[in-house]
Every structure is written in C-alpha cells, then in structure tokens.
Write a structure and sequence with these properties.
- By secondary structure, the chain is an all-alpha fold.
- The chain folds into two domains: 4-75, no CATH class; 111-161.
- The chain has helices spanning 4-8, 12-20, 30-52, 71-74, 78-100, 112-154.
- The chain is flat, with a radius of gyration of 39 Å.
C-alpha cells in the first residue's frame, strides 16, 4: 500500500503506467459493479437536477447509462404500490396507538366515606414506611459519628476539608 504523501505526489503519466501494468489482477465483476454505480450516480444527479427545476418535466435515465443489473431503476412499478404501502403503514401505526392508549379508570368507590377511609389507610401506611426510613437514617448517622470520632482520635491533627 502506498502512503498518502507518496500517492499525492504521483504524476498522471505514472498513473497511466500503473494502469497499463499487466501484472495487476482485476477482480471479476468489477466492470459490472462500476457500470451499476455509474448509473446510480447519473440517476442521482439527474434526480437532483430535476428537483431543482421549477418546471414539472419528467427526467429519465438514458438506456445507454443503465446496465442490465439496473433493471430495478427502470421499473416504475414501485411508484404504484409505494403510496398504498405507506398508507397501510400509517393505518397500522395509528391503530396500534389508539388500541394501546390506556383508558381512564372507572371510579372504584361509590361511597365517598369509604374512599376517604381507604385514603387515610394508604397515607398511614406511607407514613409508617417513611418513619422506618428516618429511623434507619438516624441509626446510620450514629454509626458515621462513631467512625468519625475513631478516625479523628487516631489523627494527631484535625483533617481539613
């Protein structure tokens, strides 16, 4: 492989000599692939040019630029079924979104006093859980204070923060 700085320094005559070298092996099928890529590039260029024009003239590839492998580019049948496929996709997505949306829950209590009693029970349960968390945190605080006093007891000088 040639380093980039040497590659930039190659002259046109040296490139032609490399191209004429019979010892270089060209992969099979490279010619067809290059023709296909050239046709695709020409199609893209013509599509860009056509989209820039304000007139509604239709652009077509010249048959001489299209290889036999490029039949899909010449075939315009996809223009007939593509809008139908897009509309089916939109319908499926919108249907999935409508079916998947959660519905508003119905009232579970007919008696407001019963609902209030359940609310008080729920809040008392939450309060007991919070109280347990506070107790655990205060217990951890005493452990931290014990460790801090032991560490500072071993240090001759106070630790600056």
């Amino acid at each position: 492989m040639i380093p980039l700085n040497e590659l930039e320094a190659i002259t046109l005559s040296e490139l032609e000599a490399i191209g004429r070298d019979e010892r270089l092996e060209i992969p099979s099928g490279l010619d067809d692939e290059l023709r296909g890529l050239t046709a695709l590039l020409a199609f893209a260029d013509e599509s860009d040019d056509a989209s820039r024009k304000t007139s509604r003239s239709k652009t077509r590839l010249r048959p001489s630029l299209m290889p036999d492998a490029g039949l899909a580019l010449r075939d315009k049948a996809w223009r007939k079924w593509l809008p139908a496929a897009a509309s089916v996709a939109v319908l499926l997505v919108s249907g999935a979104l409508l079916i998947g949306t959660p519905k508003r829950p119905a009232d579970t209590f007919s008696d407001p006093a019963e609902a209030y009693a359940m609310l008080e029970e729920t809040f008392s349960l939450m309060g007991s859980k919070v109280q347990r968390g506070v107790e655990l945190a205060s217990g951890a605080e005493t452990v931290v204070e014990n460790v801090k006093s032991k560490v500072l007891g071993y240090c001759p000088q106070p630790i600056e923060r």
